Amino acid sequence: MANDWLWLLVYRREYLTNLCIQPVILKDVVDVAPLGLDSELPHRKIIRSWLEPMTQSQTTRAVALLIFDAMLWVGLIASTVIVGNVFFKIILGMIAGFVTGRIFILGHDACHHSFTPHRGLNKILGRIAFLPSLTPFSLWDVGHNVVHHGQTNLKGFDFVWEPLSKEEYEALSPARKLLEKIYRSGFGPGIYYFIEIWWKREFFPNSKNMPAKRPIFLKDNLLVSGFAIIWIGLLVIAAVATQQSIIVSIVAGFLVPFLFWNFMIGFVVYVHHTHTKVAWYDKKSEWLRAQPFVSTTVHLTFPLGWGHLMHQIMEHTAHHVDASIPLYTLKSAQNKLEEILPGRIISQRFTFKWYIETAKRCKLYDFENKAWLDFNGYETAKSAVVQLKSIQESKPILGTIQANA
């Protein structure tokens, strides 16, 4: 059975393509001539109007995606018990962690209400999709939709991979400096996400990290906690019934998938907004004039269809321009944006060399000079130059920010 599930995930790519990737039929796609770099960037409402035909969501398709991924996840978790070899148990647990990420992406769309046309149904499907990752729906909504999307790359507001200044770093304790070095080592995205996002801000957060208190926050935390208890309990029952080690069953069937998921999502959010060309801002007036929904996101492309397997979550510029675009039309929207705005969108092909170099350069940030620094405070890269106009004038002109690496 384990081999069957592994085969489904890896080799049935043509089936996944038909189910997840083929774009819906788009009507009345706006035909806009490409804008040169000397042209002013239009208002966000105008840019969103170009993508409006791609905001069509489909209930049947959304439900089918969730059912497929959920069945795949359940089968992989069950396989960690059925398979006897510990090594293959761990491998299956890691694949289950990857599928946890796929299901989470569906919940992410539901939280943006782009998954189906029905808000009530989106809330139900989103909470279901967030269960394998133990993500409280309402708290993710506040941290992601309200804070991150509302204030992307604005220091003091957007806390997701917010870089420290040299002065802030030097003021840290030795232990906290070490943790920051681990976070930004290139190997620490999972540790960062687990501690700074999930533990501090989502899983029963304290008043410091979540000052607002709403009954739904507690209910959603109780929901994911109850799911975790049932999940672990079923693994224990299965281990006893099959006379296997309870510890091994919990590690392979619960801990490994959850840890893999944390590293997956930590990596994803890191590369979405960390790039030598991406700028951060500590002044809101400057941030507003920089059209941050275009200039602070990275479109990361992958070989061998990995972007497709991740439900197109890397088509990230289009998502920040209009979060109502469902994942199954996101690629078309991203292509449209890059067609109309050539040279203005950071597009980067993933390689391990690029990733290691980015992690090496992007340690601290000089907000005044818009430059990335190393931990010694030496400049390692200038962010993309964004020409800001006065607040009374029209919209800003962005310089070229196409990545060459």
TrEMBL record:
EC number: 1.14.19.23, 1.14.19.45
Start and end residues of each Fatty acid desaturase domain: 91-347
InterPro entries, A to Z: FA_desaturase_dom, Fatty_acid_desaturase
GO biological process: lipid metabolic process
GO MF term (any one): acyl-lipid (n+3)-(Z)-desaturase (ferredoxin) activity
Glycosyltransferase found in the keyword field: no
Pfam families, per database record: FA_desaturase
Keyword Membrane: yes
Tree of life domain: Bacteria
Transmembrane segments: 222-240, 246-271
Keywords per UniProt: Membrane, Oxidoreductase, Transmembrane, Transmembrane helix
CDD domains: Delta12-FADS-like
Protein name per UniProt: Omega-6 fatty acid desaturase (Delta-12 desaturase)
Species this protein is from: Polynucleobacter sphagniphilus
Native organism taxonomy: Bacteria, Pseudomonadati, Pseudomonadota, Betaproteobacteria, Burkholderiales
